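Hi F.,

I've been meaning to write this up properly since the lab meeting, where we talked about keeping a consistent format for the predictions we share between groups. The idea is simple: the sequence comes first, exactly as it goes in, then the structure tokens exactly as they come out, then a line or two of notes. No screenshots and no reformatting. I'm using this chain as the first example so we have something concrete to point to.
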Amino acid sequence: MLANFIKRPVLSLVISIIITLLGVFALFTLPITQFPDIVPPSVTVTAKYTGANAEVCAKAVATPLERAINGVPGMTYMSSVSSNNGITLITISFKVGMDPDLAAVNVQNRVTTVLDELPEEVIKAGVTTEKDVNSMLL
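Output, unedited:
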């Protein structure tokens, strides 16, 4: 079989050109989805407790917020980090395809219900809820 291609190089060239032309034709005729949603939307809740260490932030700020946020529709998982400079970050990830604006509103509504359980210093500094802008970098 391979000997035929060696004996007839024109046949090999014609087959290669046909395959290339079919590939170019398929490139322009097959549907292509531009920028598919492959990165799950996420929302970040940030709270600042000035003068508190990580342990105090985890107990006084992160725990009540996590309890309130847990169970938001479309949520897949949640992670939180409390640092020694008094900042608590809670990141909530949602199912692929969920509207990030709706997810942020749902999380904000849950955070609002628990504000009275947080220390006064945290309420004064503010608890922010913002959607993360996910961009795919290659």
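Notes:
The mean pLDDT is 89.
Helices lie at 2-7, 9-29, 54-69, 100-113, 120-125.

If this format works for you, I'll send the rest the same way.

G.
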